[in-house]
Amino acid sequence: MSYIFEELKRAFWSPAMLIASLLSIFMFIGGFIEYISWLPSGQLSLLYLFLSGYNSGTANTLALAFPILACLPFVASYVQDENNHLTNYISIRTSERTYKTIKFFITGLTGGVAVAIGPVVGFMILSVLSFVFQLPLEGEGLETAEMFHSMGIASPHLMILLIILTIFGCGFTLASFGLGLSVFVKNTYLAVLMPFVFYLITSTVFIDINPLLNAQILYDINKTGMGSWPRVAYAAILIIIGAVSFFGGGRKIEYTR
After folding, report:
1. DSSP 3-state assignment of 69?
2. What is the CB neighbour count within 10 angstroms for residue 186?
3. According to a count of CB atoms within 10 Å of the terminal CB, is the N or C end of the chain lower?
């Protein structure tokens, strides 16, 4: 149990996690900050402002950078453990299977938190602003809101919660996938960048083959127009690939017992 807490502390209190979290927060806030001066007019809604941050304004920075944010905190940790020869002494603390299981889930967790913390903090800020300026919860003609309405979801707060959960899921997925790739690239920088390269390839090359191969559907809830199942299936496939690669492709850890 102490080993789990040590790994959690190592993951969540690292400079890489701090950098990824701050970038996520700044990107999200940057998406709606241009509308702050409009708040006294009362023409904007809480949901509109949140979706502006979610889309990171016209630059779509968070939608583009989330694979790097997800992988930055802990994806390279297995490669670092190997380079530092820490994996040779795992038997002193725990078994190989336990080590890899803890590593896999903490990596996914850090990836999900790093991407989702921006929307969570942004929502908290917007909730305060909404109370101060008495903003409506939902405006008119929002495409995302109409999509949720078609699913029978009318509460803007529930919409925002589902978006945040989706963002967490996409971060978890890309981090898990990246950890699986890291056992083959064996380089800390490539381990962080490979999922981003995969994301770019699927959004440019694969999209001509089939739009559902575009990894952006993991993040963009409006992308498929077919409900959530394509997103869930895509995420499950990438997580399985990451798990199989990590548990099966990693170097056999030498035991000292």
Report:
1. helix
2. 13
3. C
- Measured distance CA(156)–CA(174) in Å, rounded: 27
Taking the C-alpha atoms of residue 147 and residue 227, their distance in angstroms, rounded to an integer, is 9
Residue 4 has a pLDDT of 85
Is pLDDT at 257 greater than 50 in this prediction?
no
Per domain, the residue ranges of the chain are: 1-249
Assess contact for 170 and 66: CB atoms under 8 A: yes
Place of tokens 């949140």: 50
Alpha-carbon dihedral angle through residues 177, 182, 185, 189, given to the nearest 10 degrees:
100
Rounded CA-CA distance 189/61 in Å is: 21
Closest CA to 68 of 19, 121, 103, 11: 19
Structure tokens at 96: 């190989």
pLDDT of residue 222: 77
Q: 166 near 221, Cβ under 8 Å?
A: yes
Tell me the H-state helices in the chain. Answer: 2-12, 15-32, 46-54, 61-71, 77-83, 96-133, 143-150, 156-185, 188-201, 207-209, 229-249
DSSP 8-state class, residue 217: G
Contact 192, 178 (CB under 8 A): yes
Question: Between these two residues, 205 and 42, which has the higher pLDDT value?
Answer: 205
Instruction: Round the average pLDDT of the chain to a whole number and report it.
Output: 86
The Cα 206–Cα 211 span in angstroms is: 7
Distances (CA, A) of 161 to 52, 61, 123, 156: 15, 21, 10, 9
Which pLDDT tens digit goes with each residue over 80-119?
888 887 766 765 677 888 888 999 999 999 999 999 999 9
- Residue 147 has a CB neighbour count (10 Å cut-off) of 15
